[in-house]
Amino acid sequence: MSQNASSQNKKKFNFTKWGFVIGTPIAIAGTIATVVTVPEFRCSVGLKSEACVVPKAIVELITQKETGEALDGVKLQFISQGAPEVQYTDSNGYAKVIIPSKGDVNVNLSKQNYPTQNFIINLENEQTRTRIIKFQQSGKPEVQPIPTSAATPSVSKPPQTTSTPLASANNINGSPDDASKNLETLVKTKKCSNCYLVGVDLGGADLERADLTGVNLRGARGCPRLNGANLSGADLRGFSRTGGCTGFDLQGANLRNVNLKGAYLKYANLRGADLTGANLSDANLDGADLAGAILPDDAKSPN
Q1: How far apart are CA 37 and CA 116, in angstroms?
Q2: Residue 258 burial by CB count (10 A; 0-12/13-18/19+): exposed, middle or buried?
Q3: What is the pLDDT of residue 109?
Q4: CATH number of 54-146
Q5: Rounded-to-integer distance, Cα 53 and Cα 69, Å
Q6: CB of 207 within 8 A of CB of 183?
Q7: Helix, strand or coil, per DSSP, at residue 222
Q8: pLDDT-derived band of residue 179, with 50, 70 and 90 as boundaries?
Q9: Which of 70, 171, 177, 292 is deepest in the core (most CB within 10 A)?
Q10: Which residues lie below 8 Å from residue 68, measured CB to CB, with a gap of 6+?
Q11: Which residues contact 212 (CB under 8 A, 6 or more apart)?
């Protein structure tokens, strides 16, 4: 009897042992299979998952001096996930970059003779895709978002008329390549209504009486001849006159409802120009010739 009992106990022990040996790997395999389906884990070990795809968005930056003139050759570092994205502003102070549309993106700006400038972009909190950054000697840049939706002018709206509504440049988007092609067309034909010309260098182009209704010239620069040109409804926010430019010519130009916020138009010739409904907030018009110009109701002529 004792031998039979011992034999039975031995068999029971062996069964338990082999059950453990076989069951443990199965349990481990099941745990691994469950873990690898977790999106966070798959992303952390480099496995493909829809959750690993971070939505991106295009952001345009225009760097300027405190006076509003374009600041070129600025090194921009965008720091979020992974290695920093590095860009440099072109001769117009313009740069375009693709960044995550969620979370904080730290932007580090460096330029010789300036202290390092830093600020944060969070497209969840501020969805504006274009920003003007004015360098400050304090190291804290002045960041001015430029809304892509229609901006409300700081002046009272003119009375409604039955004429054809003015074009608006606020929603005109494109790429640097588009801007270059449009600039070529403009110089050849003097016609480019509702064009995308963000950040272009107009140089000394002869655009007398050119049709630039509703054109998007945000952050553009140069010293073009624009006397008599039609710029009604155009967006010239952050436009900067080239440093060596004297007598920037806008004489007699149609600038009705133009957005000149932050534009650098020092010593510009605006004689007889129609600025009805224009947004002149933060525009530098020091020394500008405004003789005979029609100004917005709340604007004051510079001394």
Answers
A1: 44
A2: buried
A3: 93
A4: 2.60.40.1120
A5: 39
A6: no
A7: strand
A8: confident
A9: 70
A10: 134, 238, 240, 262, 263, 264, 284
A11: 186, 192, 193, 195, 226, 229, 230, 231, 234
Contact 157, 277 (CB under 8 A): yes
Between CA 28 and CA 35 the distance in angstroms is 11
Greater confidence (249 vs 24) lies with 249
Confidence of residue 119 (pLDDT cuts 50, 70, 90): very high
Which residue intervals of the chain are DSSP H helices? 2-35, 39-44, 176-189
Type of residue found at 225: R
Q: What angle do CA 86, 89, 95 make, to 5 degrees?
A: 80
215-219-223-229 Cα dihedral, nearest 10 degrees: 20
> How does pLDDT run across 99-116, given as a tens digit for each residue?
888 889 999 999 988 999
Nearest to residue 273, comparing CAs of 302, 297, 252, 246?
252
R_g over Cα of the chain: 31
Predicted structure pTM score: 0.47
Angle (CA) 62-68-69 rounded to 5° is 80
User: Do residues 107 and 125 make contact, with C-beta atoms less than 8 angstroms apart?
Assistant: no
At 280, the amino acid letter reads L
